[in-house]
Amino acid sequence: MGATQALPVVRSEGAGLQRGVASAARTWVSKCVPFIPCLLSLAGLAACTWISFRLGANLASVGFLYLVFVVLTAVYGGFWHATLISVISVACLDYFFDEPILSFTIGRLSNWVCLGAFEFTALIISQLSNRAQLRALEADSERRDTTRLYQTARRILLLDCGDPGDPVTALIRDAFELRGVVLFDGVSGLLYRTGAHPVGVDQRTRDAYLLDSDTFASTEKTWFCALRLGVRPVGALALCGTEMSQLTASALASLVAIALERTRTLEKHNQAEAARQAEQLRTAVLDALAHKFKTPLTVIRTASSGLPAAGKLSELQTDLVSLIDQEARKLNDLASRLLGAPKLDSPEFAPQPEPVLLSRLMKAAIEELEQQADRDRFQVSAPAQEPPVFADRELVLTALAQLVDNALKYSLPGSSIEVSLNAWESSVVLTIRSQGLVVAPTDRERIFERFYRAPGAQHCSIGTGLGLSIVKTIAADHQGHVWAEGEPEYGTKFSLSLPMVGATR
Fold first, then answer.
1. Could you say which DSSP state residue 100 is in?
2. Number of C-alpha atoms within 13 angstroms, CB side, residue 438?
3. Which CATH superfamily includes the segment(s) 354-499?
4. How many CA within 13 A on the CB side of residue 365?
5. Residue 106 CB coordination number (10 Å)
């Protein structure tokens, strides 16, 4: 029983001994590997010497054979091993093949010339061999880095939409076997880290972005590269624990910059698509409501028009009926605007242009105002030789009516409204200047968006936010332009530019 219990111990000790012997053997072999070319050359040199001596070969033939061994040793063993072979080769030549045979002649000039030739050959061949090996290693490293770049790019393209910072840094660290990766997004100001990294690497990564520079810290073996889109820096990347080439590091930084920009582009596209769908839904709802409004408004206007004929009304009743008819007309006008806005955006819509004078259309739009007091507030000035514009009469009249209505709503009551026309290059510019609300610089583009109203406009008058968007659409359909300019402590100017007749756009 005791022997049976001791058996596992003996087996364990035997296995441990075998592992120790195997480890020692591997260590000894690894130490001997660099000397194998030299040992093989010595063996070949001995065999060549013995055969040549027995065959009676001359000095020149044997010297050429020895030179072959020197070259082979220089290629596979290096310069110092080739030097050893050179010295032994010269000694063999002197002892076995140069007169007097089987004796050394120290100081003979031919020995030194032969040794110098062997050493020169060993030096040149070893340098060429080292250079070739270095280039082979560089080519292998570049090929490996190219494969890694391809794999990284492929995996980045397969990432789902979202914040790419952490996934991208993890992919780079795994693909290039780095100690750590730090990514700084200059647009969002966020910092992403993966793995271990030296102290202060975060700030140095930000500095690479601010300075727009690529640097390599040899002590930490870390690359700091700026992420660029064209010539504009958008971030920075730190690659810790690597000695990759600058070309590879720059290519990796460009790949990360493209990945970040791709994510931002997809986000903007998704937001634009969502906004477009919301706009379509809102337009469809308003279009349906406008159609629903038209029928009861028609009935209301018909009834209000028929009340005076139904019987004698008092003065108060007449005023109430007039007020109902007036407000019903305004509601009908708003419904017409809601119905007309989607038609302007339709792909099938096309204006019917003809030569017209903007001053005449402007006066016609003013004459359509109900109140004489409102018509008297407008002062129109036009050049004597006003050039005509090439435009759709009804559409431009609608745009001018919107600008007139806008000027009345947001100007001081009773103040004059100046309308001027001027020829500018190949366009005619109509400007409406009113005293009252000053549009802020941040709102001068947004007020032409559909349903948007400037912050101060809500307190001046009731509106839908459609008028100026209709004007912008009509101007764009005529290859024109509309814009607003604020005048501090006075008001706002709206300008409409349309091409002259014969102008090329």
1. S
2. 8
3. Histidine kinase-like ATPase, C-terminal domain (3.30.565.10)
4. 27
5. 6
Two tokens, residue 149: 């770049």
DSSP conformational letter for 311:
S
Give residues with Cβ within 8 angstroms of 73, minimum separation 6.
37, 38, 41, 81, 82, 84, 85, 122
**Which part of the chain is CATH 3.30.565.10?**
354-499
Taken in order 199, 205, 206, 212, is the CA torsion positive or negative?
positive
Structure tokens at 290: 């406008």
CATH pick for 160-293+326-348 out of 2.40.30.110, 1.10.10.10, 3.30.450.40, 3.30.420.40? 3.30.450.40
Which part of the chain is CATH 3.30.450.40? 160-293+326-348
Question: What SS3 class is residue 241?
Answer: coil
The DSSP secondary structure of 154-211, one letter per residue, reads HHHHTSPSS--HHHHHHHHHHHHT-SEEEEEETTT--EEEEE---TTHHHHHHHHHHH
3-state class of 478 per DSSP?
coil
Contacts of 472 (CB under 8 A, 6+ apart): 448, 482
- Reported as half-sphere exposure (CB side, CA atoms, 13 A), residue 250 has a value of 7
What is the residue type of 153? A
Per-residue pLDDT of the chain (505 residues; tens, 9 = 90+): 444 444 554 455 555 566 666 666 566 656 666 778 778 888 888 888 888 888 878 877 888 888 888 888 888 888 888 888 888 888 888 778 777 777 777 767 777 888 888 888 888 888 888 888 788 777 777 777 778 888 887 887 777 666 777 888 888 888 888 889 999 988 888 888 888 888 888 899 999 999 988 999 888 889 999 998 878 888 999 999 888 888 888 888 888 888 888 888 888 887 777 777 766 666 666 666 665 666 677 777 777 777 776 667 777 777 777 778 777 776 776 666 555 555 555 555 567 888 999 999 999 999 988 788 889 999 999 888 889 998 888 888 888 988 998 888 888 888 999 999 998 888 899 999 999 888 888 888 888 887 676 665 555 555 556 778 888 888 888 889 999 998 888 888 999 999 888 765 5
Joined tokens for residue 98: 């140069």
pTM listed for this prediction = 0.46
